[in-house]
Amino acid sequence: MPLTDETVVAVVGAGAMGVGIAQVAAQAGHEVHLVDAAEGAAAAAREKLAATLTRLVDKGKLTSDESAGILERVIIGPAADGDLRELPPVGLVIEAVVEKLAVKHEIFGTLDDEQDESTVLATNTSSLDIGAIAADLAHPERVIGLHFFNPPPLMKLVEVVRTTQSAPEILRDAQALMESWGKTPVLCTSTPGFIVNRVARPFYGESQRLLEAEVADAATLDFALRELGGFRMGPFELTDLIGQDVNFAVGNSVWHQTDRDPRYEPVAVQRELVEAGRLGRKTGHGYFEYAEGGQPVGVTPDEGRARELVGGPIETDPVARTIAMLVNEGVDLVRRGEATAEDVDTAMKLGTNYPKGPHEWLAEIGAATIVEQLRALDAAFPGGRYRVSPALEEQV
Ligand SMILES: NC(=O)c1ccc[n+]([C@@H]2O[C@H](COP(=O)([O-])OP(=O)(O)OC[C@H]3O[C@@H](n4cnc5c(N)ncnc54)[C@H](O)[C@@H]3O)[C@@H](O)[C@H]2O)c1
Question: Keyword Phosphoprotein: yes or no (predicted)?
């Protein structure tokens, strides 16, 4: 059964992501069954959604009729408290439960047994191998990733992820459906970190290494990336916002899943912050200290130092070093056949708000310069982190 505007959807897991995804689907006109294993959690999430919709009506973003229609389409049915055998037949399930392979695998096993073989089974996992979630199912061809970004109603990007077994027509349908939900889908394989969480690693790692080498402090490096590099936020203020534990876990997961590729090796400064419980804004301190209301205190960048570093030698230029590595990651992903260049650029601009995509930077800066910069970094810091992607070497 192809995915259409009429497709009935189930969202399993009514946490931060699940409730947002349910809102998006219901807003696009779908009937949505909301499910969560914690008793009463799905119903409570629907109440939370009602409050969100009321706020949107107050702000004039929705009419009260639209709001009522959305809420009416979010159904707390017999499966709401987690028993998926009670779920009526649906055309699409989007799973957004805790990030644990065993839990997801069991859910997909039940859905594979209980739902018609044409029902598309999607996971919102950020870091698990979707092939492993689909392993041993009778119909693994209907399993895909639909990786939404937080918060789903506001973030346009959805990574549509294929395993080696996903059916091409299901992937095509899923992309069309995401477009009809007002999203911008990009297609990629189930490679560690998919596109965004993979290509973004050096944005954090390069500055962390510069901090560790005492080239500049966190505020100065943030200033360089933000004010001189054109990024929306610096890596330290951004990871303080995301949570150092969350950002560290993503990096660590990519590192482990790539057999500890030195490109993704976590940096001690961040590990130490996590171990010390300095997780960022949510704990009141991370790289920076935060006042009660969440505003950072005492952040004073050394602007002169930042301007001296940017445009200087590549080893200590936070902007050029970061961009060279983002380009290297982006082209390497394309070389391995994980995604197209266009999708990589779209994903990075929409998923992380980067001012440009890696291939746009490449076109602007030129492969010869990027290769020269990476070779200089490799000479200064040997060990494989700065190895040049063959995709760049071929261009010089
Ligand atoms: N938070 C993010 O920024 C983000 C972004 C993209 C993807 N994701 C992914 O989305 C998924 C959910 O993340 P979240 O942040 O919404 O988590 P969350 O902790 O807010 O919610 C998870 C929910 O799943 C429920 N749950 C646990 N086991 C269940 C089961 N067996 N059946 C049904 N419900 C079950 C929990 O009760 C909880 O309500 C994870 O796979 C995560 O990696 C998260």
Answer: no
**Ligand 1 center from residue 101 Cα (angstroms):** 12
Q: What is the mean pLDDT of residues 18-40?
A: 98
Q: How far is the CA of 5 from the centre of ligand 1 (A)?
A: 25
Say if ligand 1 is within 6 A of residue 391 CB: no
For residue 293, the model assigns a pLDDT of 86
Residue 333, token pair as written in the block: 């992903």
Q: Which amino acid is at 135?
A: A
CATH class, domain 198-393, is: mainly alpha
The finding on whether 48 has its CB within 6 A of some atom of ligand 1 is: no
Q: What are the residue boundaries of the structural domains of the chain, listed by start?
A: 9-189, 198-393
Residue 2 has pLDDT above 90, yes or no: no
**Domain 9-189 matches domain 198-393 at the CATH topology level:** no
What residues form DSSP beta bridges with 122? 94, 144
> Is residue 338 within 8 Å of 189, Cβ to Cβ?
yes
Give the active site residues. Answer: 126, 147, 159, 197
User: What is the Å distance from ligand 1's center to 342 Cα?
Assistant: 30
Please name which of 31, 30, 29, 11 lies closest in space to residue 21, comparing C-alpha atoms: 11
The average pLDDT across 85-114 equals 97
What is the CATH code for 9-189? 3.40.50.720
